[in-house]
Each structure stands twice: as structure tokens, then as C-alpha cells.
Amino acid sequence: MSLNHTHLSQEKLLSLDFDVPPVAEQTRIADILSTYDNLIENNLRRMALLEASARLLYREWFVRLRFPGYEHTPIVDGVPQGWERAPLESALVLQRGFDLPTQDRKEGDVPIYGSTGILGYHDKAKAVGPGVVTGRSGTLGEVQYVAEDYWPLNTALWVKEFKRVTPLFALFLLREMDLKQFNGGSSVPTLDRKSVHRVEILIPSALMLRSFDEFVSDVFTQIKNLNVQNQKLRAARDLLLPRLMSGELAV
Fold it and tell me: Could you tell me which CATH number the domain at 88-200 has?
């Protein structure tokens, strides 16, 4: 039995007619779309700078120990007065995420977090935000802050309980720990949660945690607002493009 295949040759392709806007109109369309792209890119740069400022503050206060009033605070064996050195598990608890097969996911606005970040959306949440998620299997080292309720997948670890630290402090704490070094898998990279829990950390005083949170909360509110702006800009751009190209909207 033979099958007949219709081949579109280069000659046939080149002979086809397409409706193409005049060059001047194409330029105007490109200029309009570039305005949206430039605004989005500018917001992304601002978001990166804002998060960098929060990271620098964390390192200044909690790594270099140059926190407000450090000049007058006794420090014994690297521990400022009122602070404590303790295992990570005394400050927070990491827990494996939950299974959610693709076929079971339903349309919604609850973000689904895997080892690399958002992998989709669902109509139900498994964890209450704000929260912190990191990779458990496959990709290690990425630590994400989640402002809203979410669903952590089984390829991720999520902070089930913030015992003595806040979500924003935990975000930068875990990022500074370089979690890739706790790979316990042979073929597939897998984060050894028990080893991470045993790591000794510095737990700041409640006053210092509050001060850090006040500053960083404002930073992340700005980041969230910029992200919302970008979502609206992308939606408007994507809605505009086909209408401009079809001539429905004159330029």
C-alpha cells in the first residue's frame, strides 16, 4: 500500500500571496509593541535592583554582622548578645511537597511550584502564603518566595512551619546556605532535608528580625506591584498584536 504525500516545495511557497502591511505601517506597529516591551524590561530591571537591595541588607546585617547598633553589642564566639546559634530545624521546618498529576490539575489562579519555580496553576492550594519553596529533586538551589497561597509539588520542599524566623528572613537565609551542597542523590540530584535541618545558623533577636522584615516587606510589595504591572502590559500587548496586524486597529 502506498501513501500519497503532498509536498510544499520552495517554489510553491514563494508563489503564495500574503497580505503584508506597508513598510511604514510595519514600522509604526513595531514602535507601538516596542513601547510595551521597553516598559516590561524596565520593570524587570527595577525588580532585580529591589531584590538585590534586600539581599545586600541581609548580608550586611546577618552575615557581616554590621546590624544597627552592632558597635555597642557584645559578640561572643561570633554570636551577638540576644542572638542564638542553633540548628536550622529549630527555626523552620522543610517538608516535601504534594503530588499533583497533570491530568488532575484544574483551571485556577493558584500557582503550582516545582523545583524551578511556577510550573502551572490549579484551583486549590495546599500551603498558605507567604511561604518559601526550594527544589527537592532535579534542580537544587533555587529558593522562591511565594506571597500568596500555593501548591508545592513533590519535586519541591516548602517551609511547613516558621518557628523562629519570618518568611522573608528564611528566603535569604536558605539562599545564603548554597543548598546544592546538600545533594544526597546518586543519579538524580536530591536535596537531603535532614542534613539541611542539622546545619547550625544564627537566629537574630526578635527586634532585629522585625526591623529587617519592615524594610524588606516594603521592597517586596514594590516588586509585587511591578510584577502585576508587567502582567497587565503583556496581556495588553498580546491582545493588541493580532488587531494591529489584521488592520482592525489603524496605526
Answer: 3.90.220.20
